[in-house]
Specification:
This protein has 6 helices and 7 strands; from the N terminus they run H-H-E-H-E-E-H-E-E-H-H-E-E. By secondary structure, the protein is an alpha+beta fold.
Amino acid sequence: QNLPKHFDNPEFREDALRAIGKAAQRLNELISRLGLLRKQPALRTLPVNLSDVIQTALKTVPPTGGVAIVTDLPPLPPVPLDAEQIQKVATNLVLNALDACGETGEIRVTTAAQDGWVSLTVQDTGCGMSPEFINRSLFRPFQTTKKKGIGIGMYHCKAIVDAHHGRIEVESEEGKGTTFRVLLPAQ
């Protein structure tokens, strides 16, 4: 609407082009993520150490400011996983934990092996979630507590874990934090 009025102003044109570019990029990302909802993820599994997969995922997380990320990622026996897909799960859980913590807090990322399972645990000291949201909305598409979220991250994480014949457990207390535990079969 402002373009005809301010078209001759080079600063306005530059700012408008930048805004259009950002909007187009956001739409492309949204379309790409929505495409993930249609199908079960196709897995390419290889025997890998879950701790190595999580370390790789953590390298993609942007700087955290006042939020400390504490890790305990011991060497684990190789298990058949799609490393790329599990990295997506880990990255999404850590980014959600960062959002929940806000400016300060702590996120603990741990892995373990026990009783035929390997596990990834992401625990934060953030805002937590209500039992109602967990029970009714957490793993459903287009349900979110984020101001800028679209509500498909946790849905996609669950689809990836389900494709691995695993499960996701969650414990949360409003005002105290959340713990996500991803359990994946070791065989």
